[in-house]
Amino acid sequence: MVLLAAGCTLGPDHQPPEMLLPAAWSGPLATSPTAVAQGAWWQRFHDPVLDGLITRSLAANPDVAKAQASLRAARASLAQQRAGLWPSLDASASVTEQRSSLAASGYGSGARTYGTWTAGFDADFELDVFGGQRRTIESARATAEAAAAERDATVLSLIGDVANAYVQVRGYQAQLEVARQTLATRRDTAALTRGRARAGLVSELDAVKAEAEAESAEAAIPPLEQSLAGQVHGLAVLTGAAPGELTGLMAPVRPVPTLGGAIVADAPATLLVRRPDIRAAERRLAAANAAIGAAEADRYPAVSLAGAIGLNAARLGNVTDVSSRVWSVAPQVSLPVFDAGKRAAVVAEREAERDEALASWRATVLTALKEVENALVGLDREAAHNARLRRSVRAWQDAAQLARAQYRAGLSNFLDVLDAERSLSEAQDTLAQSDTALATQAIALFKALGGGWESAT
Length: 457
Known about the structure:
Strand order of the largest sheet: 1-2-3-4
Number of strands: 4
Radius of gyration: 38 Å
Helix content: 55-70%
Mean pLDDT: 85
Distance between the termini: 38 Å
């Protein structure tokens, strides 16, 4: 029995799944065998406020606390399953005092009082002959490792969400700066046009149009302020704070974070070990595979040993006598004879769950590949878009300045000024949005590559 318990384990052994992956990314960024996406990648934005917010979120975010609690529960479950390989031992002691009537037994009158002193140990041990318990432990271990990877995935997602929310806040601040600058310019133009209308140099219609443009510019500000406040509130919640707690911290205007240096994406195969969602899916597959062996073992005989050893005496002084020693041994074999196919159906169910976990793993890998490819293209194209927008803004700044100068000199009409100012404000607003999108694409690439989580015990 001992030899069988040491060497017989039913069910398939887990083999890491394989999948044909491309040798390199098809996106425009270079690849390198050395990953640069791991670690505190958000520090490459060189923004101390962002660094502080991420530190706060990792310490106080409820989702991280929930994931950490799930990991502790999975590890505790593993400890419970490991304990099943060892015998259970219970100690007990009792004293019984009893009085019986002699008259009731027909042996005279009166009563007799006597006691029983008992102490001992009870042991129970189920031999893992067919490896069912070891497969259960293997499944619990893989489940705990999956919980650790899921905790890492939660951390990665949280850091990305905080970084994205922070970038959005700075983006709305940049758009508000553009809107306020536009309002100031429109008011200057309206004042200039009113003066020229009073002097009879332009029509009253031009003055009214200039006033309307200033009102339109002012009307664009409240929606941006509302969006900014909403982003600040959401950012506060991500850090585990009440919605209004970050209003003062985020009030000073800072530029949209820009990435320091390029992102070098290493080979696609590295995603299998770096991305926590892929590691979690692989560990869930391992757990499902081990559960097949546990179900298989349940179809075979179960062997257990029960025993007890102790002392039993009528008087306390006789407890140590050799004659008071008692013991019992009770080996037991349980053999499934007929269950109408129930155990076989359980095995089939576990095999189906294993196949489902394998399909989920493959889907997770494909999704990861897609996210990296999309992020590579998105970052490259947004960078090109951003560069062209900057040239456009500079050109429209020159055009607007020239149009206003010619309008003051009476060399152009109001429509030229209006067109140039509109185009400039639109280009500046689009550039502010592109700056936000560029940082967001960089964050998406870091997340897709699986960097940014920090392993914890």
